[in-house]
Design brief:
Layout lengths: L4 E5 L3 H13 L3 E5 L2 H11 L3 E5 L7 H11 L5 E5 L4 H9 L4 E4 L4 H12 L7 H7 L10 E5 L3 H13 L3 E5 L2 H10 L4 E5 L7 H10 L5 E6 L4 H9 L4 E4 L4 H16 L1
Parallel strand pairs: 1-2, 1-3, 3-4, 4-5, 6-7, 6-8, 8-9, 9-10
Helix pairs in contact: 2-3, 3-7, 8-9
C-alpha cells in the first residue's frame, strides 16, 4: 500500500506529537500543525488522504477549518478529534459532513483503524478539487446565485463553495431579505431552504412565482414531510435536494438550471 498522507490539526502540541508518532509507526506520512490557519494552507499544499481535526482551537476553530476544507473538497475524509466540543459544535460538524468522530482519550487503535479504513476509500476523480487545493482559482462565471438559509454555517459554506467554482454567490439568512434582493438585482438562480423562521421557503417561492421571477429555484430541506414537499413541488422549483446536501449534486443542479435558462 502506498504511504498514506495524514494531516493533523490540533492546538495541543502534546496530542499532535502523540498522534504523529503512532501514525508514523503505522507507516503513514504525517504533517501536523497546532494552528487552524496553517492547517488550511497545509491541506491545500499537500492534498492529504485523511485529515484529523480538533474542533476546539483558539485562533481559528475547527468548524471554520472544516467549512473551508468542504468548500475546497466536498469529499475529503476528515476525522474530528472530539473532547471538550459542545453538542452544538458536533452537530454542526455533522452538518458539514465530518467523516468520523473519535473521542480524545479513546484507544489509539480505533484511530489508526479509522485512518486505514478511510485511506482505502476510492477518491472521486474531480479535477476542480485539485486545482482549488493548489490555489488556482476556477475561471469566473458571470452568473449569480443567491443562497437563502437561516443556518449561518451552511449559508457561508454554500456561498464559499460556489464562489470558489467561479459563480457570483451571495447569501442571506431569511425570506424577506431574499425578496428584497430579487426586486433590486434578480440572481440567475436561487438555492432556498424550505424551513426557516419568519417566512418559510414555500412562502418565499410563492412570492417569487407571483413576481414572475425568471431564474431557477433549487430547494434544500431536511424535512421529509410529504404534504410540505408536495406543496413545494406544486410551485415548480427545478429541484428539491434533501439535507445534508451533497455539494457536487447541488453544483450539477445549478449548472442544469443555468443551462436550461439559456435554451
Amino acid at each position: 500500500m502506498a504511504m498514506v498522507k495524514v494531516l493533523i490539526v490540533d492546538d495541543d502540541q502534546m496530542n499532535c506529537d502523540l498522534l504523529q508518532s503512532v501514525l508514523i509507526r503505522h507507516g503513514c506520512h504525517v504533517i501536523s500543525t497546532t494552528s487552524g490557519r496553517e492547517g488550511l494552507s497545509l491541506f491545500r499544499a499537500h492534498n492529504p488522504r485523511v485529515t484529523l481535526l480538533d474542533l476546539r482551537m483558539a485562533e481559528m476553530d475547527g468548524l471554520t477549518v472544516l467549512k473551508e476544507i468542504r468548500a475546497i473538497d466536498p469529499h475529503a475524509p476528515v476525522i474530528i478529534l472530539g473532547g471538550g466540543a459542545t453538542e452544538s459544535q458536533e452537530n454542526q460538524a455533522r452538518a458539514l459532513r465530518a467523516t468520523d468522530f473519535i473521542r480524545k482519550g479513546l484507544s489509539l487503535d480505533v484511530l489508526v483503524e479509522a485512518v486505514t479504513r478511510l485511506s482505502q476509500v476510492p477518491v472521486p476523480s474531480v479535477t476542480t478539487q485539485l486545482s482549488l487545493r493548489n490555489g488556482n482559482v476556477i475561471e469566473q462565471i458571470d452568473e449569480s446565485v443567491l443562497v437563502v438559509d437561516d443556518e449561518p454555517l451552511l449559508c457561508d459554506l454554500l456561498v464559499r463553495f460556489l464562489t470558489l467554482r467561479g459563480y457570483r454567490a451571495f447569501g442571506v439568512k431569511n425570506g424577506d431579505e431574499a425578496l428584497r434582493i430579487v426586486e433590486e438585482m434578480p440572481p440567475d438562480a436561487i438555492v432556498l431552504d424550505l424551513i426557516m423562521p419568519g417566512m418559510p421557503g414555500v412562502e418565499v417561492l410563492r412570492a417569487l412565482r407571483d413576481r414572475n421571477y425568471s431564474g431557477g429555484v433549487i430547494i434544500m430541506t431536511g424535512s421529509h414531510n410529504e404534504e410540505l414537499l408536495g406543496e413545494a413541488w406544486s410551485l415548480a422549483p427545478q429541484e428539491i435536494l434533501i439535507k445534508p446536501v451533497d455539494l457536487e449534486r447541488l453544483l450539477t443542479a445549478i449548472q442544469l438550471v443555468l443551462v436550461c435558462r439559456e435554451c
